[in-house]
Write a structure and sequence with these properties.
InterPro entries: ADH_Fe/GldA (IPR001670), ADH_Fe_C (IPR056798), ADH_Fe_CS (IPR018211), BDH-like (IPR044731). Its EC number is 1.1.1.2. Pfam families: ADH_Fe_C (PF25137), Fe-ADH (PF00465). It is a single chain. The chain is an alpha/beta fold. The chain has 15 helices and eight strands. The strands form two sheets. It has a six-stranded parallel beta sheet. It has a two-stranded antiparallel sheet with strand order 6-7. Helix 7 runs antiparallel to helix 8, helix 7 runs parallel beside helix 11 and helix 14 packs across helix 15. The chain is globular. The chain starts with 10 loop residues before the first strand and ends with a helix. Bound molecules: 5,6-dihydroxy-NADP (NZQ) and zinc ion (ZN). Zinc ion binds next to helix 7.
Amino acid sequence: MNNFDFVCPTKIIFGKGTENRVGQETKKYSKKVLFVYGSGSIKKTGLYDKVVKSLKDNDVDYIELSGVKPNPRLSLVYEGIKICKENGIDFILAVGGGSAIDTAKAIAVGALYDGDVWDFFVGKAEIEKALPVGVILTLAATGSEASDSAVITNEDGWYKKGIHSDLIRPQFAIMNPELLYTLPQYQTAAGAADIMAHIMERYFTNVRNVDLTDRLCEATLKTMINNVPRLFENPEDYDARAEVMWAGTIAHNGLLDTGRIGDWASHRIEHELSAIYDIAHGAGLAIIFPAWMKYVYKHDLDRFVQFAVKVWDVDLTFTDREAIALEGIKRLEDFFRNIGLPVTLKEANIPYDRFEEMADKCTSNGTATVGQFVKLTKEDIINIYNLAK
Ligand code: NZQ
Ligand code: ZN
């Protein structure tokens, strides 16, 4: 096991009715906040009214910034930064999924910086301070409610890039599984794929003697496998929603990383897809992850056998270890397909003519490698896009 620092300061407020505590929690930080949300789902579900009431009941003033799009855009981040600077706002409340939360985090960093916030995304500046952020989560997927990262798309060139810092972990995350009942099935499915991908990115490591985190990863994946199908039988299955929602936070708050080095190639390769084709991040991962696995499994066959046996219950009496590993990958693919996700580029109607461009963007024009488990070159990435056809 490697040395590690583990920080996860986010206060999780979990369960029925917890959204009504938002004003009470927010006022501990500020009486003047920026309230960030998406394209209106929170108005349809009635959550908006509850948030406004709770803020008003607690004498918290707010300015709204709505219109966050999935694969959130830099232009709205600039708008939020301007509002914060002009109005002396010192707290940001995000209500929604990963896109609203990531927009809030990027604004939080940019509001205390004199230069262009994009500097942080391209490594021109290091994050030294950020406004505090609070969250009400409405989609179990990205883990952004407690993660140290934010991912933003710059429309100028369609670059999708992330920042990482413990300073942008939210102060609190309010998580009521009932708020997820209104999710379209496709978003539930894409969210599930994202959660599973966050676990698998960590699972496939070259670090040895990481038994505890291996078992935690396997248990979290099994929780997903057992509970996600229940949401397709009954979207209002509270217990299944609760298991999946909590798994989503655990998958990406850093706990499963402790003492090991994750891979993250699939995420990087996927981000190029969602930047250009604007598909849901989780759907992109359902396509890329199995293709990545087929490309790299021989690098550590034992680990892929372990994945097949411990996560997917593949029968060890299979005589051929390679067949066991491949069966594990197939079961993952079947799982994604069964919840209605595309598992090939073709199924997502993505054309095959920009592989080179995406691989270039991913590897800084072929000068860098991607991933830790296997360090992939530009050529490898093109091969993986080809395997995903
Ligand atoms: O915009 P609204 O109207 O709210 O609708 C949203 C949006 O259309 C809708 N939705 C959310 N909650 C709902 C709901 N509809 C009905 N009922 C509800 N309860 O769902 C749609 C998708 O929302 P979005 O926030 O875009 O989805 P998600 O949470 O999957 O976020 C995806 C973004 O997060 C990034 C992704 O790359 C992508 O840009 N990621 C962020 C990470 C992080 N910060 O740690 C890590 C991830 O790996 C990921 O890269
Ligand atoms: Zn992800």
